[in-house]
Design brief:
Strand content: 15-25%
Distance between the termini: 83 Å
Radius of gyration: 37 Å
CATH superfamily of the largest domain: CheC-like
Helix content: 25-40%
Structural class: alpha+beta
Number of domains: 2
Number of strands: 10
CATH class of the largest domain: Alpha Beta
Shape: elongated
Largest sheet: 6 strands, antiparallel
């Protein structure tokens, strides 16, 4: 509401006062109340915002790779995206874990201890159904997994972990390996109940089936690479690497690259019959005068002229002329040589 009244508003107010009528005052709108977020002091200062942001970067990359992998393996439209990354205690995760679930206990050196890779039963049955030739019909999700189904999921999870290793490469190389698979929450006690963990929640859709995959990283497991999870440190490392790579000139960078040199005579012509009847000891007449220089080609591109001779006990070519570089001629030589 503006503090300054217009002339019409002033006249209207005066007329109301003179007439003695009550003035209706519009109530001021209440300010929007901010939502109160419950703060858990048990997880205070465990995962910084920078670490959460870095994990988001890693697993966004992983989600893109996983979408491509699942689409190719299952021959279906598959999508994966990171919904959230939040810190909880392990007891909260354990209490909310459904049953049955494909809970993979994984080791990710240099991370300490074990981590969890949780695939919902809906996603697991969808993968199994399509790999066995099905079309992903709805199934009873509360039935236990058979040994054959777990064996199939074991192979799939190992491939998923290989993709996770690739997603981590830009931050810190890890070697995620499957330890074992459990289907009940009571057998996945990897840390103490009050230990904070980072839960990466990913929404995965396979055809019409949509459900969740969770990756759970304990706080203690991330300690060996805690510094690498700070984006500023990561950018600093990358900038140092780029500066080191830029210090050398292009010539210095290519100085150790090997190329093939060939000294060639002028072309000569021969019939197919002559070539087929050639025997050991025969002399082939070439169209090249002894006083004419040979052409030295670098990777099929003429670069020098020179004369053939001996240097010690080896054949050699003495360079007498450097050919002028012609980009069009080089392109033709690359295409036809």
């Amino acid at each position: 509401m503006s503090n300054i009244l217009s002339q019409n508003e002033i006249d209207e107010l005066l007329s109301v006062l003179i007439s003695g009528k009550d003035v209706a005052v519009e109530p001021e709108p209440e300010e929007d109340k901010q939502e109160v977020r419950v703060y858990d002091f048990r997880t205070a200062n465990k995962f910084s915002k920078e670490q959460i942001r870095t994990l988001h970067f890693i697993y966004d990359n992983y989600a893109n790779r996983l979408s491509t992998f699942l689409s190719g393996m299952l021959r279906a439209v598959c999508e994966a995206e990171v919904l959230s990354i939040e810190a909880q205690t392990f007891s909260e995760l354990s209490n909310s874990m459904p049953s049955p679930v494909v809970a993979s206990i994984i080791n990710m050196p240099p991370l300490q201890g074990s981590s969890l890779f949780l695939i919902s039963s809906a996603i697991a049955y969808e993968i199994i159904s399509r790999l066995l030739g099905g079309t992903g019909e709805k199934q009873a999700l509360d039935k236990p997994f058979t040994e054959i189904e777990l064996s199939i999921m074991e192979r799939v999870i190992k491939s998923m972990l290989g993709i996770m290793n690739e997603a981590w490469e830009k931050i810190n190389k890890v070697n995620a390996q499957l330890d074992r698979i459990e289907t009940s929450a009571q057998y996945v006690q990897i840390v103490s109940a009050n230990e904070p963990i980072a839960i990466i929640t990913m929404k995965v859709s396979i055809g019409e089936t949509v459900d969740i995959i969770n990756i759970c990283l304990p706080h203690v497991a991330l300690q060996p690479i805690a510094k690498q999870l700070v984006m500023q440190s990561w950018y600093k490392q990358n900038s140092v690497r780029s500066r080191l790579s830029d210090q050398g000139s292009p010539g210095q960078s290519l100085a150790g690259v090997y190329v093939t040199l060939n000294a060639v005579f002028n072309d000569t012509q021969a019939t197919l019959e002559e070539i087929l009847n050639t025997e050991v000891g025969d002399v082939i007449q070439i169209n090249h005068n002894i006083n004419m220089p040979v052409t030295v080609k670098v990777e099929h591109i003429p670069k020098f002229k020179g004369f053939v001779g001996m240097y010690g006990s080896h054949y050699a070519v003495k360079v007498t002329e450097i050919l002028k570089e012609d980009l069009e001629d080089d392109a033709d030589n690359i295409g036809w040589e």
